[in-house]
Amino acid sequence: MSETKTTSTIHEVKNHVGQSVTIGCWLNNKRKSGKIQFLQLRDGTGFIQAVVVKSEVPEEVWESATKLTQESSMYITGSVREEPRSKSGFELTVEHVEIIQITQDYPITPKEHGVDFLMDHRHLWLRAPRQRAVLVIRAEIIRAIQQFFDDRGFQLVDPPILTPSSCEGTTNLFHTKYFDEDAYLTQSGQLYMEAAAMALGKVYSFGPTFRAEKSKTRRHLIEFWMIEPEMAFVDHEESLRVQEQFISHVVQTVLNKCRAELETLGRDISKLEKIQAPFPRITYDEAVEFLQAAGHEFPWGEDFGAPHETAIAEKYEKPVFITHYPTGIKAFYMKPDPNRPEVVLCADMIAPEGYGEIIGGSQRIDDPQLMEERFKEHELSSEAYQWYMDLRKYGTVPHSGFGLGLERTVAWICGLEHVRETIPFPRLLYRLYP
Hints:
Blueprint: E1 20-33, E2 36-42, E3 47-53, H1 59-67, E4 73-82, E5 90-101, H2 115-120, H3 122-125, H4 129-151, E6 155-156, E7 162-163, E8 175-178, E9 181-185, H5 190-200, E10 202-210, E11 223-232, H6 236-257, H7 259-264, H8 269-273, E12 281-283, H9 284-293, H10 306-313, E13 320-323, E14 336-337, E15 340-344, E16 346-351, E17 356-363, H11 368-377, H12 386-393, E18 399-405, H13 406-414
Parallel strand pairs: 3-5, 6-10, 12-13
Antiparallel strand pairs: 1-2, 1-4, 2-3, 4-5, 7-9, 8-9, 10-11, 11-18, 13-16, 14-15, 16-17, 17-18
Helix pairs in contact: 4-6, 4-13
GO molecular function: asparagine-tRNA ligase activity; ATP binding; catalytic activity, acting on a protein; nucleic acid binding; transferase activity
Family: Belongs to the class-II aminoacyl-tRNA synthetase family.
Enzyme class: ligase
């Protein structure tokens, strides 16, 4: 009777010390020293070194190991042992190699490659240790986001991706035909989430959004993911408290669960350890005064660009809220400050280290008459937005919400230079492949 083999992943070998296990994996790299081969293996869950000693294995096993090329696939069987010098803390002493495929001429070699080359081969570049680390952290951020809201009584609601109108003007929207009607790919689910909040109290959405913005900066993607909570009976102040607790929770979860991946990226973990609520707050007025004093020619009433946000963020070790922007540069649905109607009850959260705005939020207008006025000012179609007006007509309440851009958040937490590495297959101004 044949013995049943024990299968494992690289991540789980810690549970099999002293045992023989079989792992399905790929060769990441290898080196040879005389009659010993050192195989660097990966299986998606992690990396481990497997050692093949010629005097300890049959000749065919040694030959199989010799044939292996970068990204060749195999089932490898070996004994797990602890190895303090290894990053994983474990090593595999090889007993058997079953080759699945010998890869020929793998295009991404250990040498340096240009960005365009790597982006053209994004489907393969994902296998690199650095890219894997980013995607593992992204997945953990997503889990932390959902856990935060699920544990606090929020309901997940999915707004439509195809919409008949925009929440912030149609300039940067992708237009398509919806049979005989015009439609757009959503740039935000917020208006629909307001309707959901009137039914369910506290809600959040998590899905793709699209901006037809011809921007090539390191902070912009054409397709990206947004988390958009909306909360009935919640004012601007309470919303800010939720936001800072939310970001603290996400960052601390990643620190707890993904320390090895952060180290792979060379991230300065000490900077992330400081991300604990509460966060500093300054008003738009104070931000303008600061910029002018620092030598920026910045008139009151304009929106901040990347250099301005970076200059402000450099003052702080934590994210900073900039509150009370001028009414004229913010969306039509934001509630004016009752004590100063020329500014609105809103805030942008600016991440440290030059990563820019990661959250934008506000208290929403709940006065039907004021919303009517805003519609006229912004020349919005009453017909297209009648359902949105109904939210103020039938049981209006104070409510607030915000939106977090996932990819900018991933870039900040990982310490990445460009958002193109934060999503598996980025959609950029001149890139739709692969």
